[in-house]
Amino acid sequence: MANPSKVEAVAELKTRLEKRPNFILASYSGLTVEDLTNLRAKLRTEGSELKVIKNNLFLRALKESSAHKDNSIEFGDEYKGPLAAIFSADSLPAVAKVCKDFAKDKKELDVKTGYMDGQVLDKKSVEAIAGLPSKNELLAQIARGLNAPATQVASGINQIMASLARAINAVGEKNG
Fold first, then answer.
1. Nearest to 16 by CA among 86, 115, 116
2. Residue 7, Cβ neighbours under 10 Å: how many?
3. What does the alpha-carbon distance between residue 114 and residue 122 come to, in Å, rounded to a whole number?
4. What does the alpha-carbon distance between residue 60 and residue 76 come to, in Å, rounded to a whole number?
5. Helix, strand, or coil here: 11?
6. SS3 49
7. Full-model pTM
8. Residue 110 in 3-state DSSP?
């Protein structure tokens, strides 16, 4: 018979995975409680959360999660020991950037793997997406791109109207 606390832990992890399907797994050995608290606060600003996990229970939750069950996610020997899962709904590049920046000061945080939009990411891929712009930055770039032609048209029309006004004013001054 299964241990009720483990069944409950798997159900909780499964719920988190379904609410926030993208995640990063990182080793946190050597970080103090204060360090983890600071990291959690930084991650919350990006709409994500850090949860210390039991590896076997996390794997079981992945296999039961409807968002992940079609992907074969297996952990090798490098994923032994204490791991933390950092869950994110849609801002994994921003979360990866927070982890990368945090790891510059605290070498004990070691990103192992990640999962984004149906793809399992290795350590190098997680580091690569940390350099991508965030969703808000991308939306701002698109808005600027869409706004530029309208601004140019408005500026052109304004120049034509100003030239016409100057011409009418010059004719009016000439004719008195």
1. 86
2. 13
3. 6
4. 15
5. helix
6. strand
7. 0.71
8. strand
Could you list the beta-strand ranges (E) of 39-118: 49-53, 83-88, 110-116
Longest dimension (CA), the chain: 104
Q: List residues bridging with 87 in a β-sheet.
A: 23, 49
Q: Note whether 94 and 26 are within 8 A (CB).
A: no
Q: What is the pLDDT of residues 10-26, one digit of tens each?
A: 888 888 888 888 889 99
> For the chain, how many residues are written?
176
6 Cβ neighbours under 8 A, 6+ residues apart: 57
Which residues on neighbouring strands pair with residue 121, listed in sequence order? 114
Contacts of residue 10, Cβ cutoff 8 Å, sequence gap at least 6: 57, 60, 61, 64
pLDDT digits (tens, 9 = 90+) for 40-88: 999 888 888 899 888 888 888 888 887 776 666 666 666 678 889 998 8
**Dist CA 174 CA 111 (whole Å):** 77
Tokens of residue 76, six digits? 């090798």
Q: Which residues contact 115 (CB under 8 A, 6 or more apart)?
A: 21, 22, 23, 24, 68, 71, 73, 121
